[in-house]
């Protein structure tokens, strides 16, 4: 209830707050994502996103990945590449296994068609939400 008023008081974030404020006022909900990601979920939102911020992020991220890649190549050349492969928290494999085995386990965050999950936004959108994984998906 206090979200729109709070967002209007934020300073120093440029356009990053404008789209979030609009989404909150229009739908009563906001996703926990920066402006630049709304275009992934709402077709017209890329036009409202902070493209300058996206470009700055991309530039920094590109430099980071180049440096990280150079470090990995050095480690592999030294013969310590096998230590680079570590398990992670990626959920795709457990979700696929859950569908195949009809596990019924809960996933905290999956992308699903909005089939009544969030009632005050269009039903043909995809939403990120908790879900039970079984043979139906």
UniProtKB/TrEMBL annotation:
Give the Glycosyl hydrolase family 4 C-terminal domain ranges. 23-137
* Signal sequence segment: none
Traced from the root, the source organism's taxonomic lineage reads: unclassified sequences, metagenomes, ecological metagenomes
Q: Which InterPro entries match?
A: GH4_Enzyme_sf, Glyco_hydro_4_C, Lactate_DH/Glyco_Ohase_4_C
Offer an example of a GO molecular function term for this protein: hydrolase activity, hydrolyzing O-glycosyl compounds
- Organism expressing this protein natively: marine sediment metagenome
Q: What is this protein called?
A: Glycosyl hydrolase family 4 C-terminal domain-containing protein
């Amino acid at each position: 209830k206090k979200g729109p008023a709070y967002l209007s008081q934020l300073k120093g974030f440029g356009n990053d707050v404008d789209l979030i404020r609009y989404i909150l006022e229009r739908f009563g909900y906001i996703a926990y994502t920066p402006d630049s990601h709304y275009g992934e979920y709402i077709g017209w939102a890329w036009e409202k996103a902070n493209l300058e911020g996206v470009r700055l992020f991309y530039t920094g991220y590109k430099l980071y990945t180049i440096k990280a890649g150079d470090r990995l190549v050095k480690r592999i050349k030294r013969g310590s590449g096998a230590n680079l492969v570590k398990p992670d928290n990626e959920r795709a494999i457990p979700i696929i296994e859950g569908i195949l085995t009809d596990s019924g386990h809960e996933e905290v965050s999956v992308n699903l068609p909005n089939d009544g999950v969030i009632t005050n936004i269009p039903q043909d959108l995809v939403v990120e939400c908790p879900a039970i994984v079984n043979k139906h998906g």
